[in-house]
Amino acid sequence: MELPKLDEKQRAGVKALDRELLGLYGTAEGRPLRSLTLRQLVTEAEGRGMLGPGGEKARDSKGKKSKRAWVDLLRPVMVAEVRAAKIREQQEEMLREQLVKELEQEKEQEQKQRVVELIQTLMKRSEGSDCGEPEDDDATISQESDSKVDKTHRYLEALVKSVCIPRETQQDVAMD
């Protein structure tokens, strides 16, 4: 079984809110992006591999180091991380639902098989029970027992057919 994939429309519907953009590294762990200090923002950028020690720094329009420039640099990366995590969670949920559905179908098949086996053993017993009884000279009694056995067989066959019919077919028949 393969991991179900979200289509493009479902992927586009996955949004990352500002409050979900949380720090992962150092003292910023679990804190929202907007409330991080300049030092924590630099640590976050280094932790994500965006710049090495002594690398290029985020600067504002005037060329100064600023908290706002670091936030603008980190936001797209953090949004992509959060969206990827949400998409993965949705795909895992779809997989769980698929597995539950498959397990229910297997369980239903096992139950049907048990019912069929039970009915078959009952039919064999009912056929065998006629042989064990002493023969009566009265013809009406033997005809009555034969008709009872026939009715039992017909009932059990109808039961087997109704149990073995897939659900969709039963619903279609019920709607007609």
UniProtKB/TrEMBL annotation:
Residues 130-139 have a biased composition (Acidic residues). It comes from the Eukaryota. Residues 89-120 form a coiled coil. Keywords: Coiled coil. Residues 46-65, 125-149 are annotated as: Disordered. This is Uncharacterized protein. It comes from Phytophthora nicotianae.
